[in-house]
Amino acid sequence: MSTTNSPGERKMVTFSLGQQMFGIDMNALIEIREWEEPTPLPGVAPFIKGVTNLRGTVIPVVGLAERIGWPASKIHSRSCILVVNISGNQCGFLVDEVADIVLIKDEDVQPAPDMETAENVIRGLVQISTRATDGSQGEAGTMVSLLDLNALSLTRQLDFAA
């Protein structure tokens, strides 16, 4: 699947944390890895699960649910790590399950509500059609929160963990 988008469109990788769907820009994704227990590090933030080796490069693995202030994800057979590039740094995010790769139009993205929170890591919301079991587009839609990877502000923790 090509990551080249038409003007005004972008491909997003959607995934779940608990019962909520999230998405990240496909251009930031390096790979999707099966879950494997990372090597723990002492003295790092609790949401940093440890580090893992990605073809000779040590990368931190972050519990994304914990990073956004939710209870830790429970590891199961569909748990995986999304390896992403954030401003030149590689990082792995533990997610509950990858759902799909979807094409969205910029005009369909609604701004995140302006709420008083410590940090806002959601850059927008979009309603997507869900796929029926036969692969066709279903009627019902799912609200997807689009993550702003730069707003996760992992730079200091990433430099320390890696």
TrEMBL record:
GO terms for biological process: chemotaxis; signal transduction. Transmembrane segments: none annotated. SMART domains: CheW. It comes from the Bacteria. InterPro entries: CheW, CheW-like_dom_sf, CheW-lke_dom. One of its GO terms (cellular component) is cytosol. This is Purine-binding chemotaxis protein CheW. It comes from Sphingomonas aerophila.
